[in-house]
Give the backbone structure.
Amino acid sequence: MFSSFYRLAGLLLTLGVCLGAKAQGASQASVQPLPETSHLEQVPRVPGVGTLLRGLNAGLSFSGVHDSSVGWYDVTTPAVSYTFSPHYSADASLSIYPYRLVQNQNPQIAQRLLKATGEVGDTLIGVHGSFNPSKFWNTTTASFTLPTGNSTDGLSTGKVTFDFSNRLERYAKRTGLLVDLGIGDSSGLFNSVVGRNYNSLGPLAHFQTGVVLLLPGRSYVQSVAYEQLPLGSQTIYTALGPPGSPAQPPVSGSGMSEDNGFTTTFDIPLNAHLAISSYYNRSLRHRLDTVSIGVTYVLRGIPGKKRLSLIDRALREAESANP
């Protein structure tokens, strides 16, 4: 099982590299696309970092999140990125939880959930290759986590985890279609913009497809349907256990990390450095709703015409096509 899993992961990565090479050749053969219009993957939890000027960039996001299982909690996420070229970038981010509710591990206390402060999650590292042929945008991403979080509270698996994914996008005027598929060994690396009360360790595949609507002022709305499909035995680390239980140890089983649902995100830039970001996630499998709204500060703000992100380019093409 695991040898097949790793072969499949290698196949996906090789496919992404081949698609990227073909995309780069196509873009060089076409009349237009300039390097400055290439798309570079954003840091999921800190939008705006990773798509701007070449070189070093950084950002900080402050968010309030409401989970239907535990209520409100706060998340602060610093991120740093480095853009090597118009096609390649890398980034790292770390979520810090100033206030959060976790499972009561003291049987002498009647409350099921207790307040935890100052917790941290795993460190997320991503490496991205992005290419822009004339019809489709292709982004291949390799992601890794370093186990800096607490597995007892569902913030970590306690091990280094990985994920490989490939994303195709096609834009027509102000509407974009996207398809994303990947494979990895932890749910914490898929759809990482959404906060969860659990983390899983074990081979899984993931898929998502949806639309992007480009709005005036560089704002956009993205809505996707997703499926997270386990490929073997899973170990679940969670902050929640049965009522009255003193602790929630890791739970093992097949298919335990399966999840599916819908995620809608939007981003509204306020100026060159500040933006409001929000998402709503509905997990059909777990019957959970998660809502977040936050403010992001980006060190190196939105540039002028010299370097445009994918969304900026699509907006400008739409504006020129519809004066």
Q: What stands out?
A: The first strand starts at residue 55 and ends at 67. Confidence is low (pLDDT under 50) at residues 23-39, 242-247. Residues 2-29 form the longest helix (28 residues).
